[in-house]
Request: fold
Amino acid sequence: MTAMDCQRMASDKGLWYLENLVCPIDRTGLRFDGERLRSKNGRCYPIVDGVPVLLVSSGKQTIGLANASIERAQGRSDVIDQRARELYLESLGLNDEEKAEVARLWKGKLTAIDPVVAMIIGATCGNAYKDLTKKLSLTEYPIPSIRLTSASTGDALLDIGCNWGRWSIAAAKKGFSAVGIDPSLGAIMAARRIADELKPDIKYLVADARFLPFRNERFRAVYSYSVLQHFAKEDVRRTLLEVSRVLEPGAVAKIQMANKLAFAAFNSKQAGNRTSPKNLRFAIGRSVGVLSGHRQHADLRGLLLRTWLAMVGFPLHRAEIQACAYCLGGVATIERCYCADAIGG
Ligand SMILES: C[S@@+](CC[C@H](N)C(=O)[O-])C[C@H]1O[C@@H](n2cnc3c(N)ncnc32)[C@H](O)[C@@H]1O
Reply:
């Protein structure tokens, strides 16, 4: 914790953290003890270079790099990737070669955009960004358009699994007061560097979708793209319950869900989500149009009705689902009360 961190906690952003954050385990309020955030029950959460790290260290993580974030935030010097300490490389979802390349690009100032983004971009949007991966000539960040109506002043949006923050920036452009969370300290630091550069006012912190460190009913919208589809079913349930808790009454969440019948699911053994050969044949047949009565790349909604949403018991007739061509998954718009219904809460 540096003097700069103390200053940051005294800033408007720091005050927002103190007013809105809770302990992700017992949900009691947090206070800044001059070094860390401390819950009423004495649990402590580190602040790294002004960014609160509110991960829960016990239990299985949804992604291994969360452990690296925790260890680095706890001050373990042996885990630090010394090739560029300030980039928190050890907690990035990149292989060793890619990390070495990021360090080289960073030190030589060889890319117009942040080198972490230049390397990680493919992983944030799968095949849709395949052509952008390692494209070091990129001069602008690809910011998508978010399918949400513009916000009224002060409407808060939570971007779950934000990585380098493209959806948080998209939300800020629509007038939302965006808050991005991700368990990767390195990704959150990259997101913050980009926000500092592009100037949208976004709050970033290191946290887990399953243990949201926010007070109840804090958000007008929750958005999450390409995150829950990688989770085990139990983690999806837990996350939906948390989403329900932090949404304001009447608010909605837009969450991309995986499709049990998608090609990607064929190899996904995690969460027992592996689709059967019969289902896979059906999915292929349907998407390439070999099954009678189906046009090529036709309406995917039939497939979407078997998303994980159904697997976790969500009443599908209450969800508006938009097709996503790549993964044959879809973005489901979920009303707050039905998030709770989905898991019987
Ligand atoms: C495929 S990337 C998508 C990133 C971003 N949503 C986008 O569309 O650009 C998946 C992200 O989910 C994050 N993630 C994994 N487990 C998570 C968890 N338990 N809570 C929140 N985010 C998580 C990963 O660190 C990674 O940044």
User: Anything to note?
Assistant: The CA atoms of residues 92 and 305 lie 34 Å apart. The pocket of S-adenosylmethionine is lined by residues 62-63, 123-125, 160-163, 166-167, 181-184, 187, 208-210, 225-227 (CB under 6 Å). The two ends are 39 Å apart (CA to CA).
